[in-house]
Design brief:
elongated, mainly beta, single chain, 10 strands, 187 residues, 8-stranded antiparallel β-sheet, two-stranded antiparallel sheet
């Protein structure tokens, strides 16, 4: 759901869209570079790389109830293939049941489509995890998103780009020893 005011010919026109279409698909792989052995101090540190692609599977022709075509930056799909590359680190702290993590991921468009090339994106995330018992954990994280300006005749560079900063508490649950589900409430 998106709402904004369109400035047109000196007047302000409210516009809105309610998208129901599936967006672009992200395929991301994670490769762990460290082993699972504790360090000399007894702490377990893990680090690795993330890599993948964002594929142009989402629609780029969504219209609102009035029939107005949404700007390209609002569409569920960009129409471009993007390279995803990043890394992560996590470490268990000396305080029992406490660990931290940090990760970064760059999204770099490798092509343009129909006069549109989205801006590059960099997301940086960091947080802590406190294990309450064998299955439940309390989480807290901070997320920073830096987004470059879109380019091309359909890119509207003056209205795109910027940054966002979010903080969020969360919970995770261990379904099995190797699978966890989690959720955050972002502010």
């Amino acid at each position: 759901s998106h709402r904004h005011i369109h400035n047109h010919g000196g007047g302000q026109i409210p516009e809105g869209w309610d998208f129901r279409a599936v967006g672009d698909t992200r395929l991301l792989g994670r490769y762990r570079l460290s082993d699972n052995a504790p360090s000399a101090s007894g702490d377990l540190t893990a680090f690795g790389l993330n890599a993948g692609l964002k594929l142009p599977t989402g629609r780029q022709d969504e219209r609102n109830r009035e029939g107005a075509l949404a700007e390209r930056s609002l569409q569920p799909g960009t129409g471009t293939t993007d390279l995803l590359v990043g890394g992560y680190a996590t470490r268990f702290l000396p305080l029992a049941d406490l660990s931290w993590f940090a990760q970064g991921l760059a999204q770099l468009p490798v092509n343009a489509r129909s006069g549109y090339r989205p801006g590059a994106r960099l997301s940086l995330d960091s947080g802590i995890r406190y294990e309450v018992d064998g299955r439940w954990s309390l989480l807290a994280q901070v997320n920073l998103l830096l987004r470059g300006r879109d380019r091309g005749v359909a890119g509207e560079p003056q209205d795109t780009g910027g940054y966002g900063l979010w903080a969020g508490p969360g919970l995770s649950y261990a379904v099995t020893p190797d699978v966890r589900i989690y959720g955050y409430a972002q502010v």
